[in-house]
C-alpha cells in the first residue's frame, strides 16, 4: 500500500513515502530559525510533487495518507491537515491522523525510555513517555501539555536514563536533564511506514471530521484588554481612597 | 506605557495617521486595533498597508481570519509582509486556538489585529490603537506597551505633529 506521510507539526517539514514497510523516499526541509511552521503553506504542495516525481510515482498512485495531527505549531498543523484531507478526498483514499510525539518516537532509531518534547512556549512542553524495545513501543505517559516542572516531577520516579528527543529537547533538554539523562535533539519522522501499519490494520479517520489536536490547556485567563481595564479601574479606586 | 490622543475629523486624517504608523513600522512590530464597528480600523489598516508599499487592495479578513500581504511596489523602502487579522467573529477562547504568537514572535513582518480586545494572549511589546466615535468625529488613542512600541510611538507623534 503506497502511503504518503505528511509532518508539518514543527519547524521541520518532513514528507515520506512507503510501501510494504519499506521507505521509498523522504524529503525534509527546514528546522532553521527563520523557517517558521507557517511557511509550510508555501512549500508543502511543491514538496509533495517533487518527492513523488523523484521517487517515480504520480500522486494518483497513492493508496493512503498519514498526517501528523498535533500537538505542535498551530499554523503548520492546519496546513498539513488541510492538504492531507483534501488529497485524501480528491483521490478517494484512506487517511489516518497520527499524534506528533508518537510519530517522533517511532522515527527515533534508538531504544529505551524516550521522551519526545515539543516547545509549548513559556517553559512549557508537549511531552509523553514511551518505552521502545525491539519488539515495539509501549506508552508510559500519554501525550499532554506540561510545565517543565510538572514534567520533571512526572519523570522523577523512573530510575533509568531517559532520552529527550524533538525540538523541545533542543530548547529545554538542559533544564530537564538530571544525572543519567541525555538531552538529544532530533526532528523528522518516517511517518509513512507508521501510517501504512495503521492503515493496513484498518485504522481510518474521516477526511471531513479529522481536526487538529492542539492539546493546549483550556485557557482560564480573561482577555488582556479586559484585564487591563479592570486593573486601571482598580488603580483609580485606589487613588480615591488614598489621601 | 505612554499614550497619545489624535482627532480624526476626516478620512484624510485617518489616512495620514495610518501613513505615520506604517512609515516607522519594523518587521516584528505588532499593532493591536480596538474599537466598535465603523470607527475606522480597516481604513487605518489600508493606510498602513499603502505606506508599506503593498500593492494588493486590503480588505478585512472577517471570514478568512488572516490575510497575508507580501507583494510590494519595487521602489518601496519597506519590503516586509503585512499580516492582517480580524477577530470579529471569534470568541476570546477561540483566539487562543489560532496560534497567533507564531506570527508576532517570528519577527518577519508587521502584525495588525482588528478586534484585538478579544485576544487572551498578547505580544510582549505592542502598539495599541483605540478608535472611537466622538460625536460626529472619530478619535484615536495610541498607547505603547513596551520599549520598542514607545520608540515607534515617538516617531509617529513627530510624524503627525
Topology summary:
The complex is a heterodimer of chains A (243) and B (161).
Chain A lengths: L2 E5 L4 E8 L2 E9 L9 H16 L8 E7 L3 H18 L3 E5 H8 L4 E8 L4 E10 L2 E12 H8 L6 E4 L1 H10 L5 E2 L7 H10 L23 H18 L2
Helix pairs in contact in A: 1-2
Chain B lengths: L1 E7 L2 H13 L6 E5 L6 H11 L14 E4 L12 E5 L5 H4 L5 H4 L5 E5 L11 E9 L2 E9 L1 H14 L1
Parallel strand pairs in B: 2-5, 2-6, 4-5
Antiparallel strand pairs in B: 1-7, 3-4, 6-7
Helix pairs in contact in B: 1-2, 1-5
Instruction: Estimate percent helicity of chain A.
Output: 25-40%
- Number of strand segments of chain B: 7
Low-confidence sequence ranges of chain A: none
In order across it, which strands form the biggest sheet of chain A?
3-2-1-4-5
Number of helices of chain A: 7
What are the main properties of this structure?
heterodimer; A: 243 residues; alpha/beta; Nucleotidyltransferase, domain 5; five-stranded mixed β-sheet; 7 helices; 10 strands; 29% strand; globular; B: alpha/beta; Rossmann fold; seven-stranded mixed β-sheet
Description:
The complex is a heterodimer of chains A (243) and B (161). Chain A is of the alpha/beta class. Chain A has helices at residues 40-55, 74-91, 100-107, 148-155, 167-176, 191-200, 224-241; strands at 3-7, 12-19, 22-30, 64-70, 95-99, 112-119, 124-133, 136-147, 162-165, 182-183. Chain A is globular, with a radius of gyration of 21 Å. Chains A and B meet through helix 7 of A and helix 4 of B.
